[in-house]
Specification:
alpha+beta; 162 residues; globular; binds methionine sulfoxide; 6 strands; 4 helices
């Protein structure tokens, strides 16, 4: 059994504390859903964001389908290119939205959400298999620090995923 240890209050320091713990957590487990479920739990506990979780690529339907998450209920499917998640998938890049109310194609799963970051998650061959989505109740919650460390986290998942 693992227990999460977070002592810092500074955002970068929290990432530096939790990333090695996540690495330990996933290194001996190859099941993607189990690992994503624990990662969502760790991020929620460490940062207290409104919603954090994963949407998985459904290649056949060309949609994202809801995966492991922590937070209020969310929309189940997002078409390719739609919403911030679908755009991050289509562009294969991280998207940071400081104010979702000003974003032209934001899909509001919760009216409490004010800012958002979406990070592509790949497998070891570089194929995009999911996106990590985090939503906060404050505007401009996410910045380059989150982008940097959440991409490090995505690389960890990729290294572990055939
Ligand atoms: N806001 C996202 C949809 C997912 S929920 O926020 C959990 C989007 O615009 O893609």
């Amino acid at each position: 059994m693992h227990e999460l240890h977070v002592e810092s209050t500074d955002k970068a320091e929290i990432y530096k504390e939790i990333l090695p713990q996540i690495e330990c957590l996933i290194q001996d487990e190859t099941d993607l859903i189990a690992n994503l479920a624990n990662i969502a739990a760790v991020l929620k506990a460490a940062f207290g964001w409104l919603w954090v979780g994963f949407y998985l690529v459904d290649a056949e339907k060309r949609e994202l389908v809801l995966g492991p998450f922590q937070g209020p209920l969310a929309c189940t499917r997002i078409p390719f290119g739609r919403g911030v998640c679908g755009q991050a998938w289509a562009r294969e890049e991280t998207i940071v939205v400081e104010d979702v109310n000003l974003h032209p194609d934001h899909i509001a799963c919760s009216s409490l959400s004010q800012s958002e970051i979406v990070v592509p998650v790949r497998n070891r061959s570089g194929q995009l298999i999911a996106v990590l989505d985090a939503d906060a109740e404050t505007t401009a919650c996410y910045d380059g620090t989150d982008e940097y460390y959440l991409n490090k986290l995505a690389e960890m998942i990729a290294a572990n995923q055939a």
